Amino acid sequence: MKKGSEHIQISVSVPKDLLVEIDKENVYKNRSQAIRKILQESIVERSKKNGAVYTPRYLATYLADKIFHYEKVFNGSNDKVSYNILDPACGDGELLSAIYRTMADGYNLNLIGVDIDKKAIKKAESNIPDIFKGIIDNALCPMGLTRQVGWGIINKNLKIKDGYDFIIANPPWGADITNYKKLIEEGCYELYSGQSDTSDLFLELSLDILKKDGLLAFIVPDSIFYQDRAKLRKVLLDKTNILFIGRFGEKIFKDINRGCAIIICHKSTPNNKHEVECFRLPVDAKNNILKGFDSLSAAESRYKHKVLQERFYSTSDYLFNLDIDISLEKTYSRIARHKNRFGELVHNYRGIELSKKGKVVRCFNCNKWSPLPKNNILFCKFCHSSSEVSSLNTDVIIHKFPEKNCKPLIVGENINRYKISYEFCIAEGKNGINYKKDEIYIGDKILVRKTGIGISASIDYTSSLTNQVVYIFKLKKTAASHISIELLLAILNSRAIFFFVAMSNGEIEWKSHPYVTQKQVLDIPIPDLTLLDRNLIVKINSMNETIRKTLSSGFEITKDIDIEIERVVAEIYGLTVDDYNSIYSAIDKSQELISVKALKKISVNDIFNY
Predict the structure, then answer these.
(1) For residue 256, what pLDDT is reported?
(2) What is the pLDDT, as a whole number, of residue 14?
(3) How far is CA 209 from the centre of its chain?
(4) Which of 376, 410, 411, 381 has its CA nearest to residue 394?
(5) How far apart, in whole angstroms, are the C-alpha atoms of residue 217 and residue 164?
(6) Range of the domain at 86
(7) Where are the alpha helices (DSSP H) in 296-359?
(8) Do 38 and 99 sit in the same domain of this protein?
(9) Count of domains forming the chain
(10) Which of 27-31, 76-80, 298-302, 413-417 is predicted with the least confidence, judged by mean pLDDT?
(11) What predicted TM-score, i.e. pTM, was given to this entire model?
(12) 465 pairs with which residues across the strands?
């Protein structure tokens, strides 16, 4: 073997049936290559199942430095204090190692790490000196017991009486809990639900076993900012004073296409006057950090600002809308103050549950059709039998428009701001495919594209069908007397509402799977139109007619029309030049995507006739 080779040559026996399957693939140069590939994929798959994402050293050091900073804030003395520090999902001990490197000289440290992976614990033991105590177990339900009983035993053995001084972790994200689901349920996790992430459960556990006035520091998935994590945010706001929230986006972890964040909390009674240090890492700064030209600490010092914790608590869904600093808060409040919501004016639906590829498969047992599964086996949701997928039972029902005996179909990529391209059609009559009711599609309707940054919306006047990645909004009869569908579209596509949605949810940069939720759209504030003066109503009616004529004729909204529309929306919301300067400063911070570039085609001066 050549010196320095990364591979070790071994001899193994392989079952005959596995060898036959390998040879069937016929895509590898040789069997050794095939076996190596299978082993690599197996390791990756196991890591995904356990939710393991190991912490890079620079991030661990950054987190340890912050813990050290906050310890100084709360301790304030030079005495050599003793601390019990726990990582309930320690992996190879990178976070605890960083704590040791940062704090070993001035403190008596007792480092405890728990992990389900025996090899990871062994590595952690070799990385950290004698002060490390490794426990091979599942922290969520240790010893095969509920968390209350299991941690009671662990703490008794470790002589931990009042809880841990610091708990730090990069917990498993989205781990498979099938094997211990019952213990999770019996452990009475408040945050456990069908949509919860395992990182949520680790946060809840850690708050429970953390000492009063202890510090908690977690690396968590970006989903902590999503609307469906309201319960998690409320728990943190109810039980702690949040010291720091950092939002770092994707690429922090190599080969992991998921954004991450850091949250640091002090377990104490929340103080209404407490300010949270907030920091979003811009894309350019992150790229420089990854190249070694910058550091997280230096970037933080340039971009951090403070937000009253009470503001997070007072928002709908307890949103951590940390992008709204003092310079933007006034404008955001002007929009948010309106009590009516978009959802009060419309019915909302989604289209056919099928991707734009239109591939379907028929069950051999009950003859009903389903969307094509990712693997080669169909598990029929109707008769619960399984069928092998082959050319004998598959079909494609979405085609390029026009096609005989097909209806027009709009998919997500067909929808842009004030524009719909009619490219596809769909064959009906496949028993089992959920086409949805005709009344969903018939009549004028606003269509919003699910995927992407910001809202991309237009109106379909053709009663076309849509698929599942398109949100459908139809005006309620009770609202039709005082508002038009065109005005609602103008509001959705306005720069003011791009600002509101982006600041509410922090979606200002590209990520691997960006999308707008129906709830985000339904929660958009709408002014009380019955209070508008007559002159403004005349402008609205004129704008409505222009939008209808332009879109129904298949023409594009010109720059001049766009200016007039934005001008009307600004007047409806009572927004000033200063407000729009704030709105445009947020737009300028957003990543240069197509949807963002479209908003920059007109300026603040254009809107206000300067």
Answers:
(1) 79
(2) 58
(3) 27
(4) 376
(5) 12
(6) 56-322
(7) 296-303, 309-314, 326-336
(8) no
(9) 3
(10) 27-31
(11) 0.81
(12) 409
